[in-house]
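Quick check before the chapter quiz. The format below is the same one you will see on the exam, so make sure you can read both the input and the output lines.
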Amino acid sequence: MSTPLVKLLDAPVALTWLDPVAAKIADAWRAALPRSVKDALHGVWLGHSLHAVLVLVPVGTWASAVVLDGIATAHQLAGGDEDVRRGVDDASGALVATGLVGAVPAAMAGLTDYADQHPEQKRVTLVHASANLAGIALFAASLVQRGRGRVGSARALALVAMAANSAGAALGSHLTYRWASQANHTQHVPHVTPSGWYPVARHDDLAEGSPVQVRVGETGVVLVRRGERVFALADVCSHLSGPLSGGEVVVEKGRDCIVCPWHQSTFALETGSVVHGPALSPQPVFDVRVVDGGVQVRLRELPGVASPPPVEGAVDDAA
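Here is the expected output.
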């Protein structure tokens, strides 16, 4: 049973009337940015969501500013030294300004992630962004009031702004943990794929450069033949679970790659590494060998992660 809080945070999912607006914003943003910029804003170079890193600046500085505002207010009510109060207010203003500057790249990274989401995720993100934009506007107004010497209204505006941004942050975390935006959708593969070698296809039956889906236990695997070599990756895309077997094989940066048909995440066939986002997590890789014309695959284990025992159909390691 969903709690009242979960129901509240889930409410934007039902706002299907947002879809036309969401699609237009996403299409415009994708068209405006070169792929290299999008990869940078997704955090492909970092292997981690850049938005999640960048939001620490506005969140941290604004929270600190509100705390200082509380200290300044308490100091003022207690009849403390005016110069001390003024110094605290100046520090709070500097933090608000720093947060406003830091909000720009954070918003750009978040918008880049948003452009490659499922429709229900986009709806939550739009409400999340609206709350954050309201907070940004209120913090900007607070900074203006500080410049005018109206510290009382500046503190009040900052407090309301922090409440708006807190609501936005709650939706952002809900988007990540409840709706799995920017999560690794292949994390389960090592835990459900049986260990051992499994025959999955005949080498001569695989057409050059045409992805084929096979299964190892319950795990979908995509096979791609390139010349005499055969590559194998987990079929479900690490970004949002798209089927790689429905994608296109391309050459990117001198490497054979496969492109997810849903959001064009691109993975190197040999290593599973991310060549282009929006995916951030690499694809699980399967070792491949050809025995008497038959293609056999085995999940390449991750250090410290034990796979389940072999199941029916496994062949001897020495085969």
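If your answer matched, good. The chain has a mean pLDDT of 94.
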